[in-house]
Amino acid sequence: MGGAHSREDLELIDSDDEEQQSEGEECFQDAEEKIQRSAERGGPKTPASVDDVEAKLKALKLKYASASTPNLKNAVKLYVHVGGNTPKAKWVTSEKLTSYCFRKTCRMEVDDEEEDVEEEDEDEEREDSWWVLRVGEKIRVKVSAEMQLKTFGRERRVDFVARGVWAMKFFNEEDYRVFVAKYTDCMFENTYGYEATEQNRVKVYGKDFIGWAKPEAADDSVWEDAEDGLLKSPGSATPVRVNQDLREEFEEAAHGGIQSLALGALENSFLVGDSGVQVVKNYSYGIQGKGVYVSFDGGSYRGGSSVPRSTPRKALLMKAETNMLLMSPMKEGKPHTTGLQQFDIEAGKVVTEWKFEKDGTDITMKDIANDSKGAQLDPSGSTFLGLDDNRLCRWDMRDRKGMVQDLASANTPILNWNQGHQFSRGTNFQCFASTGDGSIVVGSLDGKIRLYSINSMRQAKTAFPGLGSPITHVDVTYDGKWILGTTDTYLILICTMFTDKDGKTKTGFAGRMGNRISAPRLLKLTPLDSHLAGTNNKFCNAQFSWVTENGKQERHLVATVGKFSVIWNFQQVKDGSHECYLNQEGLKSCYCYKIVLKDDSIVDSRFMHDKFAVTDSPEAPLVIATPLKVSSFSISSRR
Questions:
Q1: Rounded to whole angstroms, how far apart are CA atoms 180 and 178?
Q2: Taking the CB of residue 199, how many other CB atoms lie within 10 A of it?
Q3: pTM of the entire predicted model
């Protein structure tokens, strides 16, 4: 595990250097042999040092780089990475001299090498066309985020994924910058369907967010002001443990296939499986099984409800973590459902099945969330948030008069629509999360991220534009100052802080940010790690570490990618002077992370509550669940 960007740098350079060094050593040996034979024949008696130098220089046959770029348009040197994740992995030269081009085509048949240029030129006029990058005869790939292209300004080099991991090295600075600029324009057009002009950038991002299109022009002062925030966070009173960097404490088998994690901030956490819930104990070094397993069928609720009873895909703790709301999809592959089950953990059974209804009509929900970051700890909590494609609301398990419903007499109790809004136009909501004070952030299919205050769900206070990829998961810090959005190929970190016209610092949940908006930062895998993550290499469920107290700051970010659990240091991501950001083009992207590799695809990765962090550790333990096992890792301050 570890940040892979420095390893990539060295491998590409070393591959060439070793070849040149090997040739040089052979030449030196040849030179020494010639000197020896010359001395034996009694050659002219010039000073030995001069003879030595002259003979060696001649024998070396030094090859100086040409002062001019090769006489080939868009010339590059192409490398390919071989060996995967083995000790023999390395970069090797694929083409010492080749060329690239960007072509517009309506077909994406990468293996079709017989398509001629004239056919592609005709395709340029078609509306369904897109830009493709071709490199020699070996690479043809659609310009998209899936390429995971990474730039290295100092080396005049770009790495990317195209059925393998490739690197292109340019012969001069100008060629490198021309490629990056053209790639950026092609990416914009492929993503949004508009030519990459200034006018179209304003059309896509809005004039208030032009810094997202031109990061160099954005005000990054808010990032700089935040860099010291983590150092001011109060310590934990949990007893001290042995100091390690990132250590697996233990791994144990789970009872049945794990579908989701429901981490508790109190005594227990819960592994939600196909047929029941496994109860585990919370410790300062992770979670460990108690040997208690509660089946969903044991003491099952006998009401005549039509609420789906398939495998739960979402579990939400409530009422001081004594109850759990279970959400099961109506159809495989679709998150929507018409209701949910309330599972009493202490009683070990489903006590009721709730139905979603508004104005006498059955409706669906695709996601649920707690009212706020710490709401699951409230023993009297009776409300929770709901989300559907075009709905954002708050449900109440009490009736309209605020009375607890008589569950025994009700056939299928109906949840009370307490607050919310049903949007008429397609918002295509995908996911949401709440802050410590109950403000709400919502991610959408078009990539937009909207911020709603605690007072209104009708109109967003702030709406951040999308970068072209759907937001599949979203999280927010307890104080509402930072948002973390998940897409398939990258994470987006947004700062919501701004200074209003009166000089007061606010968040985008409390006021309209106007044009006082900083550019976001992206968190990505290197092309090599993205390729090694496997075919299912999509980011999932990126989250901040977990705090539920004012004055404390989240310290890490974690996301799942196939068999990888990927961890970023929050403070390092904020640091604009960090080495990751040097000589980058476009939005700043952070590639410094740790990777935990598991043998099976990871279901979820989450940090335990901050109260379980020991005094010599910057973070509470990390819990990683695969379908059949759960592991706990401790992180210390030692680097």
A1: 6
A2: 9
A3: 0.83
